[in-house]
Design brief:
alpha+beta; 5-stranded antiparallel sheet; 27% helix
Length: 308
Amino acid sequence: MDNRQREQLSALCPSVQWNVNMASHSTFRTGGQVEAMVELSDIEELSELLQWLRNNRIPWRVIGGGSNILVTGKYHQGVFIRLSGSMNNIEPVTAGAEGENCEVAISAGCSLPALVAWCVRNGLSGLEFMAGIPGTVGGAIRMNAGAFGHAISEVLTTVRFVTEAGEIKEVAGEEVEFGYRQTLIPGESASRLVITGGVFRCPRADQVTLAARYREILGKRRHKQPRGYGSAGSFFKNPAGDFAGRLIEQAGLKGLTMGKAMVSPVHANFIVNTGGAVPEDIIRLMHEVRSRVQQRLGVLLEPEVHIF
């Protein structure tokens, strides 16, 4: 951006931060610098910003909660966007008795742990499988997040978003193409829109039973996943009919290191920052894991983590 554009962006988004180190905004605890980062608190601000970015041909990305990204060590021109304020809301739309459905509108900036805890407190089922998953609702919708045989698309009835032209839109869930770790909105480019939230249809359930299930899932996740290190969760997508972690372990790669990055000895599909890893350590380790798994087992693993 030139000085004029910087002045305009500062006027448009007074909260803008310049030359931001992304290590403090990524669960990997590492990352390069971005020219500008803005936090937006409502949809009208977002619409106005996207129009300005498009008119000025300035690149942008949404980073959500920073839990499924790896920002490379180079200097990144443009703007990274995070949603906050009223973009964190949870609002019941319809109520229901036990066994009936309740519709809830959830904004993209809402954290997944906060959402799941709220649903448990209010006796709403359908999202407890995400207990313990970091990140935000927007990222979960975009990735069609899933665990334990379930995916967020099972209860998602409406997707709300803003296009790069600043148009505020929504689309019914049955019109959306949900796949494994992807959500495609017909007629729209996934990289050229910002998901602002969704409406979820959650069955009412017994709160005590739901809380027990929530604690069970949290326990499983804590037992099977590494703790105390920076990571982005599951690094590779599961191949059809198999598990990336099983393949990596079968290839004998648990504990493999590149610099300060390591394949977790606890869960082979986690690459962790053991302390002081640079993004390039993680990328080199990713390529090494992919190469060895393909050579030994004939399967080419695809990253689930977004790298940019």
